[in-house]
Specification:
CATH superfamily: Ureohydrolase domain
Low-confidence stretches: none
Number of helices: 11
Largest sheet: 8 strands, parallel
Bound molecules: arginine, manganese (II) ion
CATH class: Alpha Beta
Structural class: alpha/beta
Strand order of the largest sheet: 2-1-3-8-7-4-5-6
Number of domains: 1
CATH topology: Arginase, Chain A
Order of helices and strands: EHHEHHEHEHEHEHHEHEH
Shape: globular
Distance between the termini: 9 Å
Radius of gyration: 17 Å
Strand content: 5-15%
Helix content: 25-40%
Mean pLDDT: 97
Length: 313
């Protein structure tokens, strides 16, 4: 039996919250990610590690919350649907976290970071955020070249985004100095400007090559969590991994993290005893082919297990 990954988590109870949303980006299929991870056996795997699982699929909820009419507002696509889903589920995340459960959210596109991060920070205001991704997802409504909200959650969570009528519920809960990126390699010009201006700590793949993943995680933690006393939320976009490792994802970018580098991040964060929650997002089982989908789902499950303490001695 493995240890609990966090001194903030009293018992080995994990809330597994599916967020089957695709409205933050244009490709169908990503809404099937959570169900596929569960179908593959994720809950049983966690139970075998000694965790009591509390699963919410949210499948009916997400469908029910789709508005009849959802036109672009200030450049953003499907803002009402994304807003309604993330606002509602943010409350589920908050109450599970306050309950002392580890919160594992499964995606779904990365707009769901609005739900997970705002929910976790409502429960743990002094938390920090480790965002593992090929992308920085910090576009504002004005800077976004695509209008896809999965490229924007960090801008809302840090309060950098321009006022947007559908996202006024998102409190600027995240201090830019409590955020660190790992795995970046495809950043829009507007995002680069924001990252520079706000002095946000970012480790691109260049830094992973230069220092090695062990050192990168150490320096990242020294920055956001110098005294190793803050709760940690990990948001893991599977496109941070190389497409040869996680091919079934909507915005793959060459030159990503290896299988071990990705798992090392999860293991090292679990090892701190400070990890309270994690997202595994952007698993799209409809992309490429069946083998690719199987491989990506398998990786998603093993990343989740590592967050919950698998491979800690
Ligand atoms: N979560 C993701 N995969 N995000 C990709 C974002 C791509 C691009 N930067 C955009 O804003 O449209
Ligand atoms: Mn992302
Ligand atoms: Mn990404």
């Amino acid at each position: 039996m493995t240890a609990t990954p966090s001194k903030f988590i009293k018992s080995k109870d994990v809330a597994v919250i599916g967020i089957p949303i695709n409205a933050g980006q244009p490709r169908q299929g990503v809404e099937k990610g959570p169900a596929k991870l569960i179908e593959f056996g994720l809950l049983n795997q966690l139970e075998e590690m000694g965790w009591k699982t509390h699963h919410t699929s949210n499948e009916e909820l997400v469908v029910k919350l789709q508005p009849k009419h959802d036109p672009d507002v200030l450049n953003l696509k499907q803002p009402k649907w994304v807003s309604a889903v993330t606002k509602t589920i943010s409350e589920q995340v908050r109450s599970s976290a306050i309950d002392g459960k580890f919160v594992l959210t499964l995606g779904g596109d990365h707009s769901l970071g609005l739900a997970s991060v705002s929910g976790v920070f409502a429960a743990y205001p002094d938390a920090c955020l480790i965002w593992v991704d090929a992308h920085s997802d910090i576009n504002t409504p004005a800077s976004s070249p695509s209008g896809n909200i999965h490229g924007c959650p960090i801008a809302f969570l840090t309060g950098i985004a321009e006022d947007h009528p559908d996202f006024r519920w998102v409190k600027p809960c995240l201090d830019a100095q409590r955020l660190v990126y790992i795995g970046l390699r495809d950043i829009d010009d507007g995002e680069k400007k924001i990252i520079k201006e706000k002095n946000i700590k970012a480790f691109s793949m260049h830094h992973v090559d230069k220092y090695g993943i062990g050192k990168v995680v150490d320096i990242a933690l020294d920055h956001v969590n110098p005294d190793r006393n803050r709760p940690i939320h990990l948001s893991f976009d599977v496109d941070a991994l190389d497409p040869s490792v996680a091919p079934s994802t909507g915005t793959p970018v060459r030159g990503g993290l290896t299988f071990r580098e990705g798992h090392y991040i999860c293991e090292a964060l679990a090892e701190t005893g400070l990890l309270v929650s994690a997202d595994i997002v952007e698993v799209n089982p409809d992309l490429v082919d069946e083998m690719a989908a199987f491989q990506t789902i398998q990786v998603g499950c093993s990343l989740a297990r590592c967050c919950l303490g698998e491979s800690l001695l």
